[in-house]
Amino acid sequence: MRIDHRQTIEAALGRLSGIKPLSGGCVAEVYAARAADHPVVIKVDSGPTPALDIEAFMLQYLATESELPVPAVLHSEPSILVMDYIENDGRGGRRGEEEAADALAALHGIKAPRFGLHRDTLIGSLPQPNPQITSWPRFFAEARLLPMTRRCIDAGRLDKKTGRRLERLAQDLDDHLPHSVTPALLHGDVWSGNVLFHQGRLAALIDPAIYHGDPEVELAFITLFHTFGDPFFDRYAHHRTIAPEFFDHRRHVYNLYPLLVHVCLFGDSYIAQVQRALHRIGV
């Protein structure tokens, strides 16, 4: 860890000891440590445009506005984020999945008058615009599908033919997405690496990408990366109805957004999945 970062953290939280790197830091370097004998996780982004303060905002928003278990933020600025260390062992099982279903169903019960958020956020390291819009199909087209499609094309990651198919879909989303959705608070990035379990119990969710949207977006993401299995969906359905057309059709529409995020971040190995989803949708 760079000494100027260490000095900044110690000035805020006390002497650091036992510093060791942790895996999973695709956005920043991640360390476990003790600050004044308190276990913490430290993220450090030494890049040209650090934005760890946005991640801190999202965690604090979830902690304030919901009961979702997230690590407490102890110190933040664009290049540094210090959080409580959450004990975890990677083992979930049925009980952990059911607790995750309870927690996310409760999160999705937090409503807002418009889709989006009062400020833009991030998904991974990418900007996530959150204009406040009352139409769900319009929001998903203008704030999710089209901006990420253009970002992928501009980065040379996506061919223009596939881009045109995505743009056609965006123009026709009124025919694919519901209009009666009530905006719900979403974590936004529920893959297995962002779910912490300890002794079979849900411990915390980390690395959010929050906004208000259709809860089916969250469920679709979970199916895309197989974050949870039947115990999760069976339990979630006790709290909130899951429409049959979600599994048959809409999850393929919603998963185009995280797939495009992965195209932008990791390259063209995900393009075939984008194309298969478009084929299933009929575009």
Short description:
The protein has 283 residues and is of the alpha+beta class. The protein has helices spanning 3-13, 52-65, 93-108, 136-154, 160-171, 215-224, 230-239, 244-254, 256-266, 271-281; strands spanning 16-21, 29-35, 38-44, 73-77, 80-84, 121-123, 126-128, 184-186, 195-198, 201-205, 211-213.
Q: What are its keywords?
A:
283 residues, alpha+beta, Phosphorylase Kinase, domain 1, Aminoglycoside 3'-phosphotransferase, Chain: A, domain 2, 2 domains, five-stranded antiparallel beta sheet, 18% strand
Notes on the protein architecture:
This protein is α+β, with helices and mostly antiparallel strands. It folds into two domains: 3-84, Phosphorylase Kinase, domain 1, CATH 3.30.200.20; 93-281, Aminoglycoside 3'-phosphotransferase, Chain: A, domain 2, CATH 3.90.1200.10. The chain contains ten helices and eleven strands. Strand 9 and strand 10 (201-205) form a beta hairpin. Helix 3 (93-108) runs parallel beside helix 7.
